[in-house]
Design goal:
17% helix; 18 strands; alpha+beta
């Protein structure tokens, strides 16, 4: 694309099968694209910040990265901390506002802020939102949960995990990713993500620290690649930021009332808290996301060569 500085293609390698899913995007890996492009000379460095326009080839969207630069290279040292990651680093700002409808073409793939998916005769209210990656939202109470359970507690409930995948499979059919819900686990395990959300509450993180209800605007536990995430993925953060700006969604309903008019929303996850800048305009019942900002850190940790036999490509 002529309006981009670099192209970036993401492949999610399956955890337990020989499969690479190119259907979606990854926010954490995306945060390293800007610094890499600067250090490799693909983008001219400008101090103190260099803006890198990244073409997400998986979804044909533009991600805008604001990368701190020092002495002609991407800055590494800084005091910004990401909960769930060790240490601190230079703060990178990523604007995902162009990724609304990244996979399905619509912020609301079904046209509804809320749908009902039926499994074994029981209805489960869900919201399906598409920004950066599609995400299925469900209230923790739908599963009889508090919402503050740890990833290991959720995964230990095999019946619950099977139910989650059945609901996710039905959602995949609804948004056109598969023809049969039972195919979702093998054909599109990466997306949509699945988030169990609830109102602000006190809880303990997986590292043993305390999160107070006053410090978060909603609580979420997210599943991807058929596993519970120990923190919160960036694209899931982006989609949650979009969801809380759409009246009627489950994420909007659990959001702290005061946060509905505040730009930054604090999402409580198993590893701590992650902020997301989420701004929207409203006209004729239509929602337009004008800003979805996420902060990360990234640094080069290794250089090397991998040698592959020519016969592999025959």
């Amino acid at each position: 694309r002529k309006d981009a500085d670099v192209d970036y293609t993401f492949g999610q390698v399956s955890i337990d099968t020989e499969f690479v899913d190119y259907g979606g995007n990854c926010g954490n890996i995306s945060s390293a694209v800007g610094p890499f492009a600067i250090d490799e000379g693909l983008v001219e460095p400008k101090e103190p910040f260099t803006t890198v326009r990244i073409h997400l080839t998986n979804s044909n969207n533009i991600l805008v990265a604001e990368v701190p630069v020092k002495n002609g290279r991407a800055a590494v040292e800084g005091d910004f901390k990401v909960d769930g990651c060790p240490g601190t680093g230079a703060k990178i700002t990523l604007d995902w506002s162009d990724t609304v409808g990244a996979i399905t073409g619509k912020l609301l793939p079904t046209g509804n802020a809320k749908d009902c998916i039926r499994v074994d005769g029981k209805g489960y209210p869900v919201s399906i939102i598409d920004a950066a990656n599609p995400l299925v939202f469900i209230h923790a109470s739908s599963f009889g949960m508090k919402g503050t359970e740890s990833p290991s507690e959720i995964e230990a409930d095999k019946g619950l995990m099977r139910l989650i995948e059945r609901i996710r499979g039905e959602a995949c059919v609804m948004i056109g990713l598969v023809d049969r819900p039972e195919d979702a686990a093998t054909k599109t395990p990466y997306q949509p993500f699945f988030a169990i959300v609830s109102e602000p509450a006190d809880y303990q993180t997986i590292s043993g620290s305390k999160v107070k209800a006053a410090d978060v605007d909603l609580v979420s536990r997210l599943l991807f690649m058929l596993r519970m995430h120990k923190t919160y993925p960036v694209t899931g953060t982006v989609c949650t930021g979009a969801a809380v700006r759409v009246p009627g969604t489950i994420a909007y309903e659990v959001l702290r009332e005061e946060a509905k008019s505040r730009m930054t929303v604090q999402i409580g996850h198993p590893g701590g808290v992650i902020p997301v800048e989420a701004e929207a305009s409203y006209e004729n019942d239509q929602v337009k996301l004008t800003r979805i900002g996420v902060y990360r850190t990234a640094r080069r940790i290794m250089d090397g060569y991998v040698y592959v036999r020519k016969s592999v490509f025959k």
